[in-house]
Amino acid sequence: MGTRPLNTCHVITRMIVGGAQENTLLTARGHVERGHRVVLVTGPSPGPEGALLAAESVPGLEVVEIPALVRSVRPWQDLRAYRELKRVFLRERFDVVHTHSSKAGILARVAARHAGVPLVVHTVHGQAFHPYQSRWVNAAYILAERWAARHCDRILAVAQAMVDQCVAARVAPASLYRVVYSGMNMDPFLTARPDPGLRRQLGIPAGAPVVGKIARLFELKGHSYLLEAAPQIAAAVPEVRFLLVGDGVLREQIAARADELGLADRFIFAGLVPPAEVCRYTALMDVLVHLSLREGLPRTVVQALATGVPAVGFDLDGTPEVIRDGVTGRICPAGDTQAVASTVIGLLQDGEARQRLGAAGRERVRNQFCWRRMAAIIEQEYRDGLRRKNAL
C-alpha cells in the first residue's frame, strides 16, 4: 500500500522558459517515469520569454490551462482562477497538490486546502518580497505568503537562503521548510564541447575570450552591471566578447547602451535558446557572470560549472551556495561593478585559475543537482507527508 502510484498535481502561474518552470517540468517528468499520475495546471505563457511546453514535452504528463491564472494582480480574475482551481481539485481528487511561483502558490494552496486535498506542498523558487521594491508591496506579499503558508503542509526551497529569508519575515516556522536543490539535466553540460560552427555563426572571432550571461533580458537580472563593467574589461582584454543568452523587453535598451559605450560589436545577442541547446552556448564561454539581484538558486551557474566554466556572481540569495568563492568561482559584493570588472579581468588573464575553478565546479555540481535525485527526494516528501496524515 505504501508504494502505490500517487495522483499528483503541479500548479504554476506560467510555463515560460525559466528556472522555476524547468524545475517543475523535470519534477513532473521524474514522477511520470516512476509511475505516478501527474497533472500540470498553468496559466497562459505569452511574451518574449518563450513557451517551455512547446520546446520540452513529457509523455504522459496531463496539462490543464486556466486562462484566468495570470502573473499580475487582478482581483476579479484571481477570484475566477481560485474557483477554477478548486473545481479541478474537487473533480480530480489528487493525493498531492504541489504549487510553484507566487501567484499560483497563493491561490492554489488555499484552493487545495478548501477542496480537501490531503497533502499541499509549495516550492519557493525565489521570493516575491525583496529589497528592490517598496516596503508596502513587500508587506502585502509577506502577508499573502503567511496566509498561504497556513494552508499547506510542507514548503520546499531551492536554496537555504530562501528558507532563511522566509523565516526572518515570519512567513512560517523553520520546521515547515526543507531545502531541495533545483535539479537539472546535467549530462549535456558535463559532456559539452565548444562548437566552432556555432562560434562562427555568432560572429565570435577565433581565440576571442567570451564572457557569458544567461538570463531573461528583464529588470533585476543584472545586465546593467555587466554594461557598467564592460568598458574596463574590454580595455584590459581587447578581444573580449560578451555573449548574452536570453530575450526580453530590455533587449533594445541593452543594445542601445552597448552602442553608447562604443561596444556594440562586443555584445552578441543569442536570443531565446531552447533549454536543450543552452549547453552549446556555455561551452563557448570562458567565464559566466551571474549578476541578478533576485534569484533563488542560479541554475545557469550550475550549468556553467557543469561545463567546466567558472562563474562570477553577487553575494545574494542562493548564489553563494553554488559559487564557492575561490573554489568554483568568485563572489563580489552586490552591485559592485568595479569588483566585477577586476574579477572578470583576473580570470580572463589567468587560464590556470579558470581551469582549476571550472574543474572544481564540475565535480561539485555533478551529483548534487541531478534532476532524478531531486524528483526522488520530492516523491519521498509526498509519501512521508501522506503517511503523517494517514492518507497513504
Describe the model.
By secondary structure, the protein is of the alpha/beta class. It has two domains: 196 residues, Rossmann fold, CATH 3.40.50.2000; 182 residues, Rossmann fold. The protein has 16 helices and 13 strands. The strands form two sheets. The chain has a seven-stranded parallel sheet with strand order 3-2-1-4-5-6-7, with helices on both faces. Helix 4 links the parallel strand 4 and strand 5. The longest helix is centred in the first third of the chain and has 18 residues. The N and C termini lie close together (7 Å).
Number of helices: 16
| CATH architecture identity of the largest domain | 3-Layer(aba) Sandwich
The overall number of domains is: 2
Helix content: 40-55%
Q: Could you say which overall geometry the principal axes of the C-alpha atoms support?
A: globular
**Number of strand segments:** 13
Q: Report the average pLDDT across residues.
A: 93
Strand content: 15-25%
Global Rg: 21 Å
Low-confidence stretches: none
- CATH topology (level 3) name of the largest domain: Rossmann fold
List keywords for this structure.
single chain; alpha/beta; Rossmann fold; 7-stranded parallel β-sheet; 6-stranded parallel β-sheet; 392 residues; 13 strands
Quick overview:
The protein has helices at 19-33, 52-55, 75-92, 102-114, 135-149, 160-168, 187-190, 196-202, 223-236, 251-260, 278-282, 299-306, 319-322, 337-348, 351-368, 371-388, and strands at residues 7-12, 37-42, 62-65, 96-100, 119-124, 154-157, 177-179, 210-214, 241-245, 267-271, 287-290, 311-314, 329-332.
